[in-house]
Amino acid sequence: MINRDVNDVLRRIKSRYLLFGTFALQVHGFSFGKPDTDLWLDPSLGMEGWKDAVREIAGPHEILFRDHPDAVPPCQSARIHCTPHMDIISRPSGHTDADFDPLYDISMRSRYGLVPPVRVLLRSKLHAGRPKDYRHVMRVGRQILNIW
Prior knowledge:
single chain; alpha+beta; Beta Polymerase, domain 2; five-stranded mixed sheet; about 20% strand; globular; LicD family protein
């Protein structure tokens, strides 16, 4: 299900994190192609601690840090260029830093890390407001309802 390159990156994570995005939905059993991996690192790291953690996680892989000043509140993300790529987010769409601990407590343990409930992942995708995320929500909905 996941490439060895990403497994190597996941093994380097020392801080708490949650899996998000399409890969997290795939861990729940919904079928998708080969999605990238999205991680929400523990916000208690602070911005400098977050950047240090991303650098440690990336190891030898190239990192692209991005600012998202128009997000409310502003946030950052980093893309680690492994196969498939991994996006590390300072906060997923539709969530605040205060959501991390309660979600961490109710998340399902998987071999890749903790995964929030499906409803939480779908809410985040809807909040992102991108066409591909709407398509993913519809696809999961069809699978849940077992229709076409």
